[in-house]
Amino acid sequence: MRRTLILFFLLMTTAFTFGQVNIWEGTSVRHRVEMTVYRAEGPDRPCVIVLPGGSYFWHDMEAEGRQVGQWLNSNGITAFVLRYRTAYVPAFITHYRLVFRGNRYPDALNDLRQTLRLIRRDAATYGIDTTMIGVMGFSAGGHLAMCSAELLPRREWPAFIVPIYPVVTMSHPCVHKRSRRGLLGDSREHNRKLQDSLSMERHVPRGCPPVFLVNCQDDPVVPRHNAELLDSALTAMDIPHRFIQYRTGGHGFGASDTKGTPECRQWKAEFINWFRKLKKQ
């Protein structure tokens, strides 16, 4: 019985996790940035690059990482959970980036861009449909997800974007200041030109990929107006998108079955329904 349970556990682990990949291995970039692959069975599967949040200082690799990867995998979607470069805790505690560069913009965007390139290059290995590569980000990761369409060349855009309770603006009064500091760095935090260029509500491009946007009215971390600004900008540019704003749920619930509220946890089923309709188009 014990051997049977061990075998079952190993099989389930294999089904969920394809392995970890250093996206910069074999390049001139001297950083180890890992993506964890949750491969869905079968050929030509859709996939989602998952960007956990953490104010551009750290990552929530559980509710916004592992649990998201497993949930997508269980719905036939291959997930690539990316531990993109952030400033990390020492930069949060101190202000050493006033003197030394540290990690800052555009490092995280470069990591996402490299991940998109690797997935397209190795699509046959992963069994990926290259026309259905999406990006899903949480909190600061939602900001990074929108950067994939607003700051990358059109030929590198994902097929769809999913910002969940995202950081959006770097210049509006509702800015999440910790994320701005984490992204821009201490020496550039108040650079207005950079703030403007990284305010996602100001630069939605024509033909932007479809967007599935979620947040909560009672979010105590990232002001709800961030998502509202993005919704207005997408509407103004006539971009196909779905915006759901729940009354309750707060922030940081990710794909958890216990965090947040029963109301906000409906977002997962809503996304799957939206995604299935998108596939048929």
Distinctive features:
eight-stranded mixed β-sheet, 281 residues, alpha/beta
Counting helices, strands and paired strands, the structural category is alpha/beta
Report helical residue fraction.
Answer: 25-40%
Count the beta strands. 8
Q: Identify low-pLDDT runs.
A: 4-16
Largest sheet: 8 strands, mixed
Q: In angstroms, what separates the terminal alpha carbons?
A: 48 Å
Q: What is the radius of gyration? A: 18 Å
Give the overall pLDDT as a whole number. Answer: 94
Shape: globular
Quote the beta fraction. 15-25%
Secondary-structure element series: HEEEHEHHHEHEHHEHEH
Number of helices: 10
* Sheet with most strands: strand arrangement: 1-2-4-3-5-6-7-8
3D structure, described in words:
- The chain is an alpha/beta fold and about 280 residues long.
- It is built from 10 helices and 8 strands.
- The chain has an 8-stranded mixed sheet with strand order 1-2-4-3-5-6-7-8, sandwiched between helices.
- Strand 5 (about 130-140), helix 6 (about 140-150) and strand 6 (about 160-165) form a beta-alpha-beta unit.
- The longest helix is centred in the first third of the chain and has 15 residues, at about 1-15.
- The protein is globular, with a radius of gyration of 18 Å.
- Residues about 5-15 have low confidence and may be disordered.
